[in-house]
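Narrative of accomplishments. A recurring question from our advisory board has been how the design workflow behaves on a single, concrete structure rather than in aggregate. To address it, we present the structure tokens for one chain from the evaluation set, followed by the sequence designed for it. No filtering or post-editing was applied between the two.
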């Protein structure tokens, strides 16, 4: 051992390590000897430094060149409450907006006419809606394809035969399927409402748009291939509701939100039932626990004297 420590390099390394340990211990002793006020001041300074670094990082992320997108404001939707359900009248009006405006370009391949029954339409009304569409079916007994009126089991018809036809009709842009659009976009229905009502005729200075593009600050990048689709009184509602731009955007956003989560109301009804049953289950469990453990909890261990 003495021969090993006698080597100059090892001796210097050991002495250096010892000096670091002594210095660290001295610093810890100095911090411990500080008064409570100085310790509190150092803690506040450290917390302020960490908080400032966090704020600086957040600001850096917020103004990053790739994130120059206007975030939609939070809106008070009627179905966002803990025990609130969808406005089914708004869903019905939103279906009218989709059918008369949006369905010309956007598909909803995961929605069927039977899904409307009991939500926005009666069974007869849903059958009538389906019958308005001619569905390609077959083959028949002779091996030929034919067209028939739609049924409740049929899905909403697609506006284009395939994706290539959709791109060709929209300057190379593929209109997204709207079945789960509120779940697929950050902001959900808030984003949809802001996008549909946020078109700007003249883009700001420095923003250049290609042919067929339009400016919308809520769309990532600002340049969107879809032109403004909703205007005041572009359609007439069956129930006589004024078809203003904001009303149209609100109704179709509600309809698309329901299409993305058709089990929304059922889930909340189930939650209410569970909240009503849980107190009784908890009381019953507590009673059984007391009944099972009372004998063990209340027993007394007595010392038996030894027999001589």
């Amino acid at each position: 051992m003495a021969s090993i420590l006698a080597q100059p390099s090892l001796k210097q390394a050991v002495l250096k390590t010892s000096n670091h340990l002594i210095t660290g211990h001295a610093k810890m002793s100095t911090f411990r000897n500080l008064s409570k006020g100085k310790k509190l001041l150092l803690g506040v300074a450290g917390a302020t430094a960490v908080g400032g670094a966090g704020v600086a990082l957040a600001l850096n992320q917020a103004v990053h060149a790739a994130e120059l997108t206007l975030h939609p404001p939070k809106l008070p939707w009627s179905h966002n409450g803990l025990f609130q359900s969808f406005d089914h009248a708004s869903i019905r009006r939103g279906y009218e907006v989709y059918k008369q405006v949006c369905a010309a370009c956007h598909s909803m391949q995961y929605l069927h006419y039977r899904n409307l029954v009991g939500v926005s339409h009666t069974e007869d009304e849903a059958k009538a809606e389906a019958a308005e569409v001619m569905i390609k079916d077959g083959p028949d007994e002779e091996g030929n394809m034919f067209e028939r009126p739609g049924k409740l089991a049929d899905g909403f018809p697609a506006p284009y035969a395939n994706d290539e036809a959709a791109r060709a009709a929209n300057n190379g842009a593929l209109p997204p399927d709207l079945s789960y659009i509120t779940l697929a976009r950050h902001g959900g229905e808030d984003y949809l409402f802001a996008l549909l009502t946020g078109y700007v005729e003249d883009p700001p200075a420095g923003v250049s748009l290609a042919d067929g593009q339009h400016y919308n600050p809520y769309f990532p990048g600002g340049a969107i291939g879809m032109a403004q689709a909703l205007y005041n009184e572009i359609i007439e509602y069956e129930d006589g509701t004024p078809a203003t731009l904001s009303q149209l955007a609100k109704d179709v956003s509600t309809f698309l939100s329901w299409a993305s989560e058709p089990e929304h109301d059922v889930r909340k009804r189930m939650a209410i039932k569970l909240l009503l049953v849980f107190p009784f289950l908890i009381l019953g469990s507590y009673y059984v626990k007391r009944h099972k453990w009372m004998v063990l909890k209340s027993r007394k261990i007595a010392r038996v004297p030894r027999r001589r």
